[in-house]
Design goal:
Blueprint lengths: L9 H21 L6 H15 L5 H32 L7 H23 L8 H32 L1
């Protein structure tokens, strides 16, 4: 007797996980010298001073700091979503075990990423950045759970 649920094929598994693996590689590349504070400032400075000619250096530094910290939050928000997608294997349903697992993977990868930065001369490792990364993933688990909950409530109200 065969069960109704078929195990995912290798191709399905790869397609489910490829975006998360690709995003992990992007996160790793963002932790290199190329994306150090000096380099991102050299790109952002001319843009902001062109957009806001009266911008002071102190204000620029504040904006630059905010942009860099927002990037931590955002990249791990996205990473969580892609990890959940991989764990779900393409199924569009909510499982707390998948959510918690994706959160743990994101937090673990964040810690490893900060360790990686400790070995890059132009970067510094910070537990606060890792915490911010994990907060981004935590917001994602809440957002995704709320989305699935709203979707299920809508389906139940249509019946």
């Amino acid at each position: 007797m065969h069960g109704r649920i078929q195990p995912p094929t290798a191709l399905k598994w790869l397609l489910a996980w490829l975006p998360a693996l690709f995003w992990a590689a992007i996160i790793f590349s963002l932790s290199t010298d190329t994306f150090s504070a000096d380099h991102t400032a050299s790109v952002l400075r001319p843009i902001l001073f062109w957009l806001i000619p009266k911008l002071t250096e102190a204000r620029f530094e504040s904006i630059h700091f905010f942009v860099r910290k927002a990037a931590h939050f955002t990249e791990y928000f996205v990473f969580f979503m892609l990890l959940y997608r991989g764990l779900a294997g393409g199924r569009r349903i909510w499982r707390w075990t998948w959510g918690v697992t994706a959160l743990a993977i994101a937090a673990g990868y964040s810690a490893i990423d900060e360790i990686h930065q400790a070995f890059v001369a132009s970067r510094t490792a910070s537990p606060y950045d890792s915490l911010l990364d994990s907060i981004g993933a935590s917001f994602a688990i809440v957002a995704l759970w709320l989305w699935f909950r709203a979707k299920n409530q809508k389906q139940h109200s249509m019946r």
